[in-house]
# Entry
Amino acid sequence: MIYLLYGEDDFSVQEYLAELRSSRGSEELGEGNVNVFDGSSITSHHLLQACSTVPFLAEYRLVIVRDMLRKFEPQRGASRRDRSGQPSTKALKAWQELPDALAQIPESTILVFVDGLIRRDNSMLKQIAHLVEVKEFPLLKGQALSDWIHHRVDTAGGTINERAVRLLMEYVGGNLWVLAGEIEKLSLYCTRDEIGVDEVRVLVGRSRQVSIFDIIDATLDLNAAVALQKLNQLLMSGAEVSYVITMLARQLRLVIVMQELLSLKLLRNELSRRSGITAEFALRRTEKQAARYTRGDVTHMLRVLLDTDMSVKRGIVSGELALESLVARLSNETTFGKLGVPSGSKIH
# Structure
């Protein structure tokens, strides 16, 4: 079975992926039968080799490829050169055998492509759509978000009135990672009573004093003390470890995209359109971070982040301890080329 999970709602993507793994027996799969690849660097040969490997003492092997289709995204008005961001002839040729190869993948392999927001005219999507089960996860808004909150509360064994739902949406917005944490907290507090406006006001509050973006900014600005302080405050407010890791990874990927776009010397409105960052302050922040680091720096950070994520999921270390170590490590790095370190220094 082959899946494509994509969209801006990365919380629902991760939940679906967890359910998919659980439905195939997560204990039976084991870590030895699960492969996770970075789609920006994996080759077609490496991917197909992993998919063809026989599961070890299990019925299935799970292969997850993140952010592969993004590199086949078309760009309006772009030239055909590689550096333009347009899928090049070379890039497409390197993967031209993928559609035929997917049809030959053994039934024992579950292959899952996980991507963010991609367009329907994505060149690779058009070639493989008929071979995969495609599931799109757009951001939830309005009634869909309200229904999600009701369902989440019901699943937690609680009840919530409509006024409280609207207030919760006003306070938190559509961030499902934060909403899930707040709903869990509200459900534990209101074990026998309906969750109402008063409970939401007391436990959630109109302004969440610490934002995930404060932590990301402090981390990438190499301010370890501030980053760790705000991280502890956010975790105490009920945020999930997986949420913080996902948001850090998201920002690092945006930095890589921004580095590529800045090299094209685009006009500012085009820079915003192609990066998908509409808020001016967020655009400036990401530009600053892209200028601070090299592509190798950010790739190294993503590897460290992936190692941390896997350590937590394997139970090697507790989530909060691993996250504190990750933030401390990233915000204390002194081996990055653009931070005044001699060019001969190496990343270890």
The CA atoms of residues 20 and 263 lie 39 Å apart. Residues 2-136 form a domain with the Rossmann fold fold (CATH 3.40.50.300).
